[in-house]
Design goal:
By secondary structure, the protein is an alpha+beta fold. The protein is built from 16 helices and 6 strands. A hairpin with a 2-residue loop joins strand 5 (274-282) and strand 6 (285-291). Helix 6 crosses helix 16 (305-322) and helix 15 packs across helix 16 (305-322). The N and C termini lie far apart (70 Å).
Length: 330
């Protein structure tokens, strides 16, 4: 056995014996002990990282008031703006070759990739002001409603930092620990980020190619179907449509059954498709949409129908304006 390995084992064993009693009552010590046991982390490195991260009450405050709690008409007004549409057109033009390459590789069209980046970080201009380590430590050990989830993300983040050779106290992100232009959480980074510019690194902060390729790969891996529809507006009696809306996002009804209930579909829509009926609250009452499998794929990025609809409508507005038309904002 190499001397360095022997030294590390001796150090880890000594740490383990000293930490054992503390781990029984200290969640952070228990977390470190688990990482050392399952992933072979240097305990001193993990301890230094957690000691260097700080609890931030602003993060707790932010996570208790997510934008998805808004009604649709307010949520939509955040993302469907002329500036964001124009920014998407410019982003598409600037990265046209890379977006085309991503579409060829993964089947996801440029306007959808662009809209995700536009909704998440306004095309990379707002990638987050919190240290990711601070966010994940705060939520993993100071936010009981979702502590288990965020401790798992902290574990994934430390694995990611080790794999990518980065200092875990450096990256900035959102209050929930989402990172880079596409706002991947650590588990998504490890599973779906790609080195699309072939430079040997997955960089979701500074490499537009890696950002574009990673978003496209995420969608492809979650079942995006090239050329398939995303959503269509439904018309009919509001009470009847409301009764059809399940509140979910996964397609659960054959459109032919919806038509039999007195709902009108656009002529271009195949009534044999499966969809979910989605109700969205406008200022003057609800509006209803049918969301297809590709709509459900968008909700795998963020489990909110409001989010997925904002991405879809922004993508369509960008596509139309890029083609020389316009998308009236209502």
């Amino acid at each position: 056995m190499a001397k360095s390995t022997t030294t590390w084992l001796a150090t880890a064993t000594a740490w383990w014996l000293c930490a054992g009693a503390a781990a029984a009552t200290d969640p952070e010590k228990a977390f470190i002990a688990d990482l050392v046991s399952r992933h072979g982390f240097d305990p001193a490195w993990v301890e230094r990282t957690l000691d260097g991260a700080r609890h931030d009450e602003r993060i707790i405050a932010a996570i208790t008031r997510p934008a998805e709690a808004m009604p649709w008409h307010r949520y939509r007004s955040i993302f469907l703006t002329d500036d964001r549409i124009d920014g998407g057109v410019e982003y598409w033009r600037r990265h046209a070759a890379t977006l085309l390459a991503a579409e060829e590789a993964f089947g996801v069209p440029p306007h959808v990739i662009t809209a995700i980046i536009g909704v998440e970080t306004l095309y990379g201009t707002h990638t987050g002001k919190y240290r990711v380590a601070d966010a994940l430590k705060t939520l993993g050990f100071g936010y009981p409603p979702r502590a288990d989830f965020f401790r798992k993300e902290l574990e994934q983040f430390l694995l990611m930092a080790r794999e990518e050779g980065m200092d875990p106290l450096d990256p900035l992100g959102s209050y929930a620990g989402a990172m880079g232009q596409p706002q991947f959480i650590a588990s998504s980074f490890r599973a779906y980020a790609v080195d699309f510019d072939d430079d040997g690194h997955r960089d979701l902060w500074g490499s537009d190619a890696d950002v574009i390729g990673s978003v496209a790969n995420y969608f492809a891996r979650h079942g995006w179907t090239k050329g398939a529809p995303v959503a269509v507006r439904l018309s009919g009696d509001a009470a009847r449509l409301g009764a059809l809306a399940s509140g979910g996002s996964k397609p659960d009804r054959v459109l032919a059954d919806i038509v039999e209930a007195g709902v009108a579909l656009p002529e271009s829509v195949d009534p044999g498709q499966t969809a979910v009926v989605i109700g969205l609250q406008q200022e003057d009452g609800p509006e209803f949409w049918a969301g297809f499998d590709n709509f459900y794929v968008i909700t795998r990025y963020n489990h909110s129908n409001l989010y997925a609809m904002a991405v879809f409508q922004l993508a369509e507005a960008i596509r139309q304006r890029h083609a020389g038309g316009d998308q009236a904002l209502q």
